[in-house]
Amino acid sequence: MHWRVDEETLHQWWRLGFGTFLVLALVVGLYLSFRPAGFEDPPQATGESEPTEAAEAEPEESAEDPPAEEDPAEEEATEEPALTEEEIAELIAAAREPSETSVQVLDAGGGSTATSDVADVLGGEGYDVVAINPSRVDYDVTTVLYTDGNEAEAEALRARDDRFTAIAPNERLSEGVDLHVVVGPDWGG
C-alpha cells in the first residue's frame, strides 16, 4: 500500500503543528516568567507572622503582672554598641576588596529614591552593583543578606557605613550574588 498525500494537505499539517508548538512555547514561557522562582515557601509580608506558643502565653502572664513601660531611647541604646576604630579596621581587613564583591540592591519598602541612594553609596564605596530590583517582601530595616562565604564582606559593609542596619544569611535569593542589600524605610540617605 502506498500512501499518497498531496502538497496542500502536507502544508496544512505543518502549519497546524507549528502553530501548536508556538502556543505551547508561549504557555510554558508565561508559566516560567510568573512563578515565584527562588522561594521554597511563599514570602510573608512584614508583620504577618504567625504567633508562637511563647507569644500566645505572654498575655496570660501580663494579665497578672503588667510590664513596666520602657523608654524607647533605652532600647535603641542597648541594641548594639558602636564599633571602635580598631574593630572597624579589623572587619574591613578581613573582607575582600569592595570591587571584588557583587551586590544586588532590592527596594524592600524604602522607596525608589532610597534604593537609588543606596546603589550610589555602594558604587561610591567601590562595590560592584550588579542589579537594582524591587523586593517581594518588605523589611522594617535595611538589611544586608550574605551568601555562603561572604559574611566578612557583609560585616565590612556595615563597618564602612552604619546605615546598613542588620546582617543576615541569604536563605532565598540568588547564590550568584555575594550580597543582597534590601532597603527598608529606615534608610536615612
Short description:
With 189 residues, this protein is α/β, with parallel strands linked by helices.
- The number of E-state strands comes to 5
Structural category is: alpha/beta
Computed over alpha carbons, the radius of gyration is 26 Å
Helix amount? 40-55%
How widely separated are the two ends? 82 Å
- Return the CATH architecture of the domain at 98-189: 2-Layer Sandwich
The proportion of residues in beta strands is 5-15%
* Strands ordered across the widest β-sheet: 2-1-5-3-4
Mean pLDDT: 74
Order of helices and strands: HHHHEHEEHEE
Q: Spans with pLDDT under 50 lasting ≥5 residues?
A: 37-79
- The CATH class label of the domain at 98-189 is Alpha Beta
Describe this structure in words.
The chain is an alpha/beta fold and 189 residues long. The protein has a domain at 98-189: 2-Layer Sandwich (Alpha-Beta Plaits). Helix content is 43%, strand content 14%. It contains six helices and five strands. Helix 4 runs antiparallel to helix 6. The termini are far apart. The relative contact order is 0.14. Residues 37-79 have low confidence and may be disordered.
